[in-house]
Amino acid sequence: MLGRARARLCRLTAEQVPGAMRRGAVLVDIRPQAQRAVEGEIPGALVVERNVLEWRCDPTSDARLPHAVDDDVEWVIICSEGYTSSLAAAALQDLGLRRATDVVGGFRALVDAGVLNDA
Description:
By secondary structure, this protein is an alpha/beta fold.
């Protein structure tokens, strides 16, 4: 399942995240609150719990985020290590959000690459 999800994503490396933000990508941190409290926040990222991600990003949903203006938004989903985020990004693509993707290695890769302050 994970392999199929990743096969259709144009996954970003941690080093590509600041550039994605500069071009208007929306970072979405789906880590649970307890995990964010321990690991830290991601500057510039929206926090959306995984269990509500689809209807918050779906532009046709009454519960959509203000950023969910159309199907062309570049959603960059981030979890702790890049596993849950791959499945979540694939679920968004299933909704027609074709530019949804995630970050290889997740939050830990962002920390290791030292790019959180650049975001």
